[in-house]
Design brief:
The longest helix has 21 residues. This protein is mostly helical and 64 residues long. It is elongated, with a radius of gyration of 15 Å. It contains two helices and no strands.
Length: 64
């Protein structure tokens, strides 16, 4: 699921760049959809990984 999320994020970045090109038809709803899909895959991946019990939580400004 995390791999699928990275593919989703890459597609989202490509769509965002494509949206700014003249003559390309990338809609705002499609950008929102792929962004929400990426969010879902992140949460689903954590859930599938023992419901996130062993995940290391991100703490801004702290090094590990």
């Amino acid at each position: 699921m995390h791999l699928a999320r990275t593919v989703c994020r890459r597609a989202s970045a490509s769509w965002s760049a494509l949206k700014d090109q003249p003559g390309e038809g990338v809609s705002e709803p499609s950008l929102k959809y792929i962004n929400r899909l990426s969010d879902y895959l992140f949460v689903a991946g954590r859930y599938a990984n023992d419901k996130g019990a062993a995940d290391v939580l991100w703490a801004p400004g702290q090094n590990r």
